[in-house]
């Protein structure tokens, strides 16, 4: 009995693209890469501002609309955590987790309110305040995520060192080693992506004179790195 025919590479690539584009996260990352690519072109005056700046603004609003209601996922996490049997264990860790969830929820709700303000649902009294709350909550979330990612990366690197020491007495498959190295690589990408987000958000808070160019580059790199991570996840699955 013959072996089943393997799918051609082109078919696998098209399937991965379809999976990437059909997901909400994939559409968001795709639009973000296009949006900040054009922001760079506009910043360096390689395209006509009058013609393309409005399109870039529409991309930004489209991404906000795509993420409306994202707070439901955080509320679900909070509900699951509240009903968990381990609620009374490790009180300091629980406090830190709850604080992070509340900050994340504040960011997402404020983002939704600001999106509705841009759509004309709310006035500037709510919209401007929501924008400020969103920026500051996002800034805190970025550094909390960066801390968590760096701790995970440190754990993976330590495991890698232990594996290298154990290779004298133990044999690891090549696939297993490659998977572990890929996890470390993606962990490093996540840290760089979060640093780009932190730079972008810091420009929103302190508004330096050079923020336009810095935010264009930071947004482009952040979108590209998160897009690559999602693409890599789709390919591997």
From TrEMBL:
Q: Which GO terms describe its cellular component?
A: peroxisomal membrane
* Annotated GO biological process: peroxisome fission
Keywords on record:
Membrane, Peroxisome, Peroxisome biogenesis
Superkingdom of origin organism: Eukaryota
Quick one: where is this thing mainly located?
Answer: membrane
Q: Which residues form the signal peptide?
A: none
Q: Where in the cell is it found?
A: Peroxisome membrane
Q: Which PANTHER family match?
A: PEROXISOMAL BIOGENESIS FACTOR 11
Q: What is this protein called?
A: Peroxisomal biogenesis factor 11
């Amino acid at each position: 009995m013959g072996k089943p025919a393997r799918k051609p590479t082109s078919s696998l690539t098209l399937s991965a693209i379809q999976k990437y584009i059909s997901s909400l996260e994939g559409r968001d990352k795709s639009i973000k890469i296009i949006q900040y690519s054009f922001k760079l072109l506009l910043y360096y005056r390689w395209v006509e501002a009058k013609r393309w700046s409005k399109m870039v603004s529409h991309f930004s609003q489209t991404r906000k609309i795509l993420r409306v209601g994202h707070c439901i996922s955080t509320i679900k996490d909070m509900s699951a955590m509240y009903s968990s049997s381990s609620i009374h264990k490790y009180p300091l860790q629980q406090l830190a987790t709850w604080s992070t969830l509340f900050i994340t929820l504040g960011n997402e709700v404020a983002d939704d309110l600001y999106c509705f303000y841009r759509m004309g649902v709310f006035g500037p009294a709510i919209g401007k305040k929501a924008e400020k709350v969103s920026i500051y909550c996002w800034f805190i979330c970025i550094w909390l995520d960066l801390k968590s990612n760096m701790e995970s990366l440190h754990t993976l690197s330590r495991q890698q060192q232990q594996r290298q020491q154990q290779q004298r007495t133990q044999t690891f498959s090549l696939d297993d080693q490659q998977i572990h190295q890929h996890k470390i690589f993606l962990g490093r990408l996540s840290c760089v992506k979060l640093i780009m987000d932190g730079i972008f958000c810091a420009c929103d808070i302190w508004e330096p004179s050079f923020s336009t160019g810095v935010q264009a580059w930071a947004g482009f790199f952040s979108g590209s790195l998160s897009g690559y991570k999602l693409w890599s996840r789709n390919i591997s699955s």
